[in-house]
Specification:
Elements: E1 3-11, E2 17-25, H1 26-34, E3 47-48, E4 67-70, H2 71-78, H3 85-96, E5 102-106, E6 126-129, E7 139-141, H4 152-189, E8 191-193, H5 194-204, H6 211-223, E9 227-229, E10 236-239
Parallel strand pairs: 2-7
Antiparallel strand pairs: 1-2, 3-4, 4-6, 5-6, 8-10, 9-10
Helix pairs in contact: 4-5, 4-6
């Protein structure tokens, strides 16, 4: 996702409220916006902290008390699947980066917990806005989580998906290149037999095309009526202007 600049009022160390511009991804912005909602998208199990934090999580000095949301509530509020890599990465980036905008205040045992990637516990893990966060900068960039923060399975799945995407693009581009080469040859020669057309194509394309690959593209050109089979010899092709 791209970055989403947003402005918010936050404490900046001196006690007074001031506006800050946050440069973050759409997923990060969705998580923070969930804390602006009175229920965080789901009132089922939300809770508020005691008055030990009078400034509140979002609203400033006169705003509501600090809101606590479970991972399940954040999943429902943002539309990110519970336990997914995108939700894990987003929460890690907001709790473990230099711009530590959220804090994880409990874990399965009720202790403080660390900002790890075990955020698929549903109702066991609770997050809150870091009311003590301060920065001298007006524009604060919230970085994405490092790849090492994700599980091995998540990284493997992401790599596999990326590889498949790249291979699909390469296959598509190779098909376009073979089509253009075949049309260019037939436009110049007008009539060619299948072996000669394939040999000409091999000599002109700039990558190691295969026979089945070229044959598939010839069939596609026949279907789209760039070429036609010769009536007297089905192994011969004629160019259609």
């Amino acid at each position: 996702p791209g970055t989403t600049p947003s402005s918010s009022s936050s404490s900046s160390g001196g006690g007074g409220g001031c506006r800050k511009e946050l440069d973050m991804s759409l997923h990060q912005a969705l998580v923070l916006c969930a804390f602006n909602s009175p229920t965080g998208g789901n009132s089922g199990s939300s809770s508020s902290s005691s008055s030990s934090n009078p400034s509140g999580g979002v609203g400033g000095e006169n705003g509501p008390k600090q809101q606590q949301l479970t991972v399940r509530q954040l999943s429902l509020a943002t539309g990110m699947e519970l336990g997914s890599a995108e939700l894990k990465g987003t929460l890690q980036s907001l709790t473990g980066s230099k711009a530590k905008l959220l804090i994880k205040i409990t874990d399965k045992t009720g202790g403080g917990g660390n900002d790890g990637d075990d955020n698929d516990g549903g109702d066991a893990l609770v997050y809150a806005v870091n009311a003590s966060f301060s920065s001298k900068l007006f524009r604060i960039k919230v970085g994405a989580v490092a790849a090492s923060g994700l599980s091995a399975a998540s990284k493997a799945a992401a790599c596999q998906a990326e590889s498949e995407k790249v291979l699909a693009h390469v296959s598509r581009d190779r098909g376009y290149a073979i089509d253009a080469c075949l049309v260019r040859i037939m436009k110049a020669r007008k009539t060619l037999t299948h072996p000669l057309l394939v040999a000409e194509c091999f000599s002109q394309v700039k990558f190691p095309a295969t026979g089945p690959e070229v044959k598939k593209r010839i069939e596609s050109l026949l279907e789209r009526e760039y070429l036609e089979r010769d009536e007297s010899d089905p192994n011969k092709y004629n160019y259609l202007a």
